[in-house]
Structure formats: structure tokens, C-alpha cells
Amino acid sequence: MLDFCSDSDGQLSEDKLGIILGHEMAHAILGHTAEKLSLTNLIEACLLVPMAVIWAFIPSDGVAFITHWFIKKTMDIFIELPFSREMETEADTFGLKLTAKACYDVREAPAFWMVKEVLDEA
Predict the structure, then answer these.
(1) Between 23 and 59, whose confidence is greater?
(2) Which of 31, 35, 75, 108 is 20 to 30 A off residue 60, Cα-Cα?
(3) CA distance 4 to 1
(4) Is 35 considered catalytic here?
(5) Distance CA 55, CA 51 (A)
(6) Percent of the chain, pLDDT > 90?
(7) Distances (CA, A) of 116 to 59, 121, 122
(8) At a CB cut-off of 8 Å and minimum separation 6, what does 20 contact?
(9) Max Cα separation, the chain?
(10) pLDDT tens figures, 37-46
């Protein structure tokens, strides 16, 4: 990550490092880990009953495996991904405020995140 925060001449950019630290600190301050765990536990508890009913009528390991896979994929698509995007956006916004209050230059943030997104896709 420190290589990613370096300028074109190889010097460490404190502003870029400040942007990343502000973003990660925002996740911690906003309690995103606890929030995600709470939501996941609630959904899994709600889905446990239908899975148990299906398995009670068709007691097969294959049915249990397929049901678990289907529910996991459905949760990922309809709950985890949108919720994760929402948390990242919230951390970006709050993280930039933290970074600005720490007197780092936040004008580099849009270009920084675009470059990071391009490198992550590659």
C-alpha cells in the first residue's frame, strides 16, 4: 500500500496516505464491522428456519448444500453488495472530513480513488 501512496518520483505522498488512513478510521469510528456482523447474524437467524424445514422434509446432504449455497448467493447479491457499497460511500465521505481536519490536501482524493479502482480491476 505504501507503494501505491508514492508519487511519480517515488516519494511517499502524505496526502494520499492521509486519505487512506482517514477512510479506514472512518470505518472504525462508524462501527461498520459491528453493523455488518449484526445484519449478517439477523439474516442468517431468519433463514435458518426455512432451511431447517426444507431439510426436515428432504433429509439429504445434497439438499442442505444446495439450499445453503442458494441462500448465500441470494444474500450476497441482494443484501451484502448494496450494504457494502453504502458503507464504503459513507466511509469515503466521513474519511475525507477526517482527512481535511487533519490538515491533509483532500483535493487529490478523486484522482487517487479512480487510479486505485483501475488498478484493482486489472
Answers:
(1) 23
(2) 75
(3) 5
(4) no
(5) 6
(6) 27
(7) 47, 9, 10
(8) 1, 5
(9) 66
(10) 888 788 888 8
Place 57 in a pLDDT band, splitting at 50, 70 and 90: confident
The predicted structure's pLDDT at residue 2: 64
Strands (E), 3-72: none
Task: Give the three cell numbers for residue 99.
Answer: 482527512
Grid cell at residue 98: 477526517
State the Rg of the chain over Cα. 20
C-alpha cell at 67: 439450499
Distance of CA 73 to the CA centre of its chain: 17
Phi, psi (rounded to 5 degrees) for 31: 70, 35
DSSP class of residue 79 equals I
* pLDDT per residue as tens digits for the range 10-33: 777 888 889 999 999 999 999 988
Of the residues 24, 35, 44, 86, only one is catalytic, namely: 24
- Helix or strand run (H / E) with residue 24: helix 14-30
